[in-house]
Design brief:
Strands 20, 21, 22, 23, 24, 25 and 26 form a seven-stranded mixed sheet that branches. Strands 6, 7, 8, 9, 10 and 11 form a six-stranded antiparallel sheet that branches. Strands 32-31-30-29-35-38 form a six-stranded mixed sheet, with helices on both faces. The protein has 64 helices and 38 strands. With 1617 residues, the chain is of the alpha+beta class. α25 runs parallel beside α27, α32 packs parallel to α42 and α54 packs across α59. It is 51% helix and 15% strand. The longest helix has 40 residues. The protein is elongated and about 185 Å long.
Length: 1617
Amino acid sequence: MIWDTLKKSLLAQLIERIDSRAEAGDRDSLHNLADSFYGRFPAEDMRERSVENLYGCLYGLLRFMSNWSGPGPKVRIFNPEIQSHGWESKFTVVAVLCRGIPFCTASVRGELNRRNLRIHTIASCNLPVLRGEDGVMTSVLNDADGGHNNRPEEAVLYFEIGRHSDARDMEELRNAIVDILDEVGIVVDDFPAMCDRLLEVDAVIRSSECIEADLRDEASAFIRWMQHAHMTLLGYEFLKVERKGAVIKRIEVDKAASLGLLRDRVTRGADDLRADLEHMSIDEMHRRQLSFSKSRHRSRVHRLTYPDYVEVREFNESGEVIGQHRFIGLYTSSVYTTDPRLIPILRRKVDRVLEMSLMDWSDHESRELVRVLELFPRDELFQSSIQELFDTVTAVNRIQERRQTRLFVRRDVHSKFVNCLVYVPRDRYTTEQREKFEHILTEAFDAEESEFTTHFSESILVRCHFVLRVNPAVPLEYDASEIENQIIQSTLAWDDRLRLRLIEEFGEEEGEEYVRNLGTGFPPGYRDDFDPRVAVLDLKQILKLMNGQELGMSLYRLVEEGSEMLRLRLYHKGDSLPLSDVLPILENLGLRVMTERPYGVRASDGEVYWIQEFTLIYSLSHDIVIDEVKIEFEDAFSRIWFGRAESDSFNRLLIGTRLNWREIALLRAYARYLRQVNFPYSVEYIAETMAHHLQITGSIVELFLTRFSPVFEGDDDWRAQRELAVEKRILDALEQVENLGEDRIIRQFVTVTKATMRTNFFQQDEEGMLKPYFSFKLRPADIPDIPKPVPLYEIYVYSPRVEGVHLRGGKVARGGLRWSDRMEDFRTEVLGLVKAQQVKNAVIVPVGAKGGFVARQMRPDMTRDEIQEEGIACYKLFIRGLLDITDNSTESGIVKPERVVAKDDDDPYLVVAADKGTATFSDIANGLASEYDFWLGDAFASGGSAGYDHKKMGITARGAWVSVQRHFREMGVDIQTTEFTVIGIGDMAGDVFGNGMLLSPHIRLLAAFNHQHIFIDPDPVASSSFAERERLFELPRSSWGDYNRELISEGGGIFSRAAKSIALSSQLKERFAIEVDHLTPNDLISALLKAPVDLLWNGGIGTYVKSSRESHVDVGDKSNDCLRVSANELQCRVIGEGGNLGMTQLARVEFGLNGGRSNTDFIDNAGGVDCSDHEVNIKILLNAVVARGDLTEKHRNTLLEEMTDAVADLVLHNNYRQAQCISLAEFQAMERSGEYQRFIRLMEQAARLNRALEFLPTDEELAERHAQGKTLTRPELSVLISYSKAALKEELISSDLGKDPHMAKSVNGAFPQRLVDDYGDEILNHRLHREIMATQLANDIVNRMGLNYILRQMAATGANIADVARAYTSVMEIFQLAQYWDAIEALDNKVSSAVQMEMMLSLIRLVKRATRWLLRNRRFQMTPTQLIEEFSGGFGELRSAYPEMLRGRAAEQFEALYSHYVEAGVDPEMASTVAGAHQAYTALGIIQAAKESGAQLMDVAKLYFYMGERLELDWFGAQILSSKVDSEWQSLARDTYLEDLDWQQRTLAVGALRHLKPDTKLLSCVSAWEKQEALLLARWRSMLAELHATQNPDFAMFAVANRELLDLAQSSIRANS
């Protein structure tokens, strides 16, 4: 053989190496050692060995042997290395030197195997050696020399095992080997003595007269059989039994007699013998003089197995046991194959069993029984009683070679072992199967250790014999049948067991069907990992998938796993769930995934169903009760997977806090809301905080539940007490929270919870399920540091699909809902819009409101239709969230929403509208309102199919155009008749841009742009371009790309914004003052925005102009950063803001300060919201008529359509008046700058206005402007006017103005005349009558009188706001000023706007003075209806006579004004009326004086004006009026002096009239009066002289003069009383 050749070659080289290199004294020993050691070395183990290593190993062994004092073994374990040992090996070497006695190699090998140390090489040899007395070896002798046979041999054992480097392990192994070889030495040394004991025991047996002869003979034969090398004796002991009569005193081991392993071992022999003596009868003792058992300790000598005991009882003459001989040993291998009928004792048992079987020996069964006995395990034959043996072998024989699995159990008499025989069909037996048997048996008997032997024969059955060591102190209780059943189940094929389980679970018919469809589809890996019982559970989940369920799951824990461990099985059809999707969900649930095992189960139809098992650890808690979290976990995971709940760090709370998914979503919702209000901590950090403080988190949820749960035992007071208790518990717990950030987060959660007024958290849908979205009504003012402006109420809607807010400035508020794309800060966007809406809504009934939502599950791959569909779905959820917690108004009163605990007052007014992204959604919202039976019906959302289409009406653009017309009109240009140039933002498909660019045929549109194109027409023809724009507007959908390029002038074109660069024509460069030849699209747009042009018209989306002081970041419109320009770069004359947010407020101000004309977006485009408000109010009115049956819905809709133009007129009239109001304020801005400044301060002090938030200038900035001859700009005045209206409207709503019939009818102005005529009574009973009346009145007052009128009147008279409003209304009606105002407005483009405003200011002064007169003289009689009746007739008489009655300075003033107006183009009659307004207010005093004196009205009037001329009171009044006012107090003083002067003039006239005789003239009575008051008149004239002589009379002089005049007036009255 090749290996033999290799071995010979290596050994030859080794010999040469020894001869050439070894020391001379070692050569013979090395040669002899090599012959003996390597001669027995297996040839194949010589592979990969070099002669150098063979030589080094041999020399090492020689040195190892060189010194040994014996007789104990010498053991060395090491890892050969060249540096240390002169040779190397990749294995660890175990070298042993011991006596050359039997069992050494086998015993050491057994220990190595027991330790599972892989043995690579075994070699051993016995050597004759020469040693000195000191143990030093002198030489190794030649083993082949027979002359050394009498010398004691030494054994060298050599093992190479797997590499080990742990020194402690190697030392422990060395000690074990030493101990084992010591035991071997003891056994070998005592072996002759133990053989002698056998002879002695044989003699004892023969001398036992109390035993039957045949039993004695059989026992003696067995002892002699043992002597014939059938047992390797390992030890012996004798148990002495001391008796006192029949009583056993003591059983003890005779230590002197002990041999072998039993010399020093403590055995259970004495206990076992005592047990036998106590439980066995004397007869049984005699029959069983010889007994057999197993040792509980494995033998380490020879074979690593449990040795056997052979016990021989010794009797006295009386037949009593006086001792027991115990031999321990190992039966030799031949015993296990010898025919039992050749072994004493066993042959007797076999014969007896055959006798008991009563079989005919000619029968097959008899022969089979003999075969069974012959092959039966020898241990069972030795240790079983005859009856036990008979029962077992008979049962085995009955198997009759059938494919059965059987178990036979025998417990030894001393309960130290359980012996189990398992018969199993050969084809089902495997090592794995045997291990299963062993596991089952070990578990069943709680075995400490086990060993087995397997027997194969020609039989179809394999026999496994298991010997299980058990604790004899522990009682054994077992059911052999149940254990056998477990073994049978383990032997069944997996498919078979699954089939049985399915039939058991579903019945035979269904079970067989499932076996066919799914049973064979489980993959091998699954079968290896899981029992069929688990497969049945999984199959149930698969059946659910077959029935349409999308995802199945099961959370569980194995019995043996710790409380922090969990397992999750997911079931899915088709493809396995991607780990990239599953793992983040699990991690967010606080679970660490340890393993994942996927199994695909293929059904018979080819469909694959996936089972994915995850092993998980939850880190936040270690006491998870699976039953408490299973349902909630599975529900939460499912919702997260399908997008109905979010996957984030908040989910970690699910298991640790026992909160359900909705309660966790509640916390998440609040966290997301806090981010929207700029709370400084991220949602993730908030979730971390909640996870760090699980108990506090639970308490926060408890606080919410306590506040809002509709199921609460107790009244509101008890609920409030419970809230306080929970809050206190949270705050107390915060004492243990050291992190300030976490403390702040928890406190903020408590604050927001308390700021919540309502929630739909407990509401159910139509199917009785809790709603999948949350809505919360909050009072933002209760939340510290919330961004300003702070709305009154806010509804926050949250779900994984949609998130949104609705902010309201008051209870009656309206505004659009925007589909936002600002995921992270949509509330900031909405807050900015609601800020604008607040001022925009000053013109309508509701205050500002705005809503916005984001669709959170948009994907980049969505089509346009899919995006729209998702947006609508989100919009619906958002609307539902709003309606869920809004009160309803019914005939029986206010109805609260179901399952909503309200912490606020009744609040039924909720109106929404269209905005960016939701322009076509109004019908959807109204449909939902109808579904909720909401009282507003389709008035809930204006602009639906049964409402006013803003684009069709063009109402927003037309409203903005009113502002544009005014700008140009005030510059002397009528844009409806004069061509003008325009640059626009937008396209003709848009509402505002498209409608706007068709509002004048004289528009010359030079350029426009949208997100796709840039349109440029350098020299357009107005008429043809108008017609083309009109064509585009009528198309269903258009862009600038559809424009007829043939109509574009030379050098123009339509350019794509996607182009890299645009070449500029000379015409284009000249028109727009551009010097370069090429520009990028964005740079070209910037140039267009800065171009010299008449009008910049914004009808698009985006912010394109900022202040030069602002950065692009400040603007907040990142998409337009690259093209935005600064306001100081603009060269346009006018800006029309049809679209929102086209400029920043600071940009508008800067533009205005540089001479540009603009208002604000909320002024210009207020037409849309105003139209919607009219629609809502009209629908509320008509819906009530429909509800009572006086009008059908169809007729209502027809009526709405027919009133379209009338509604538009009302809206445009409001736009006109509001723009006019701004112009009037601007016209007086320099004169009234201090007044405006005081207004700002007062509003700030009342916390109604935030100067910084509205970008209003500081006092220092105003002073600087004043020094430069500048004051507040139109955009700034727009803000102030809107705030003035809003504040006034709010105050008037809370008053009782409606009690007066005349005031009540002021609501008529908010409705088309047709409705007033047909439904006048219904209008007076309108549900919003108070609000509409207050709005109409507030708008009328501020539009005509300016922003500070009310405050000035209150300051001057001390009257309240309601009385000022009553006085104003009375004055307007008494003097019929509304018709004069309308007449002035009719002069547009006929006279200059400056003249119009002068005329209006004359009327305004009349109103102011007349109002003050009424407030002072009718303070407690402020009833407009009565006042109008009292004064209207008298003024009618006086009005036409005024011009003729005026005298002196008053007459001169009248003539000057009259002439000025007539020259300006005003109709003479109108000019006369307005010119007389300066003195018209005196009619009130004159009428009262006539009434009080009983004199003729005309006489009083004539005398009044005569007195004015005669006493120069007109001149004196003019001096007072022209005096410089530096403070509010001086202003009030001036007004007081004028009022006093008027009273005194009237009093003087009345006093003089008292001298009038029936037959005298007025001059006569004056003369009489002058004569009577000559002294005081002289003083007055003296005072006048001084005043005339003073160039600048001051207030002190006015006060003294007024006092003198007062004396004169009072004297005139008293003299005639």
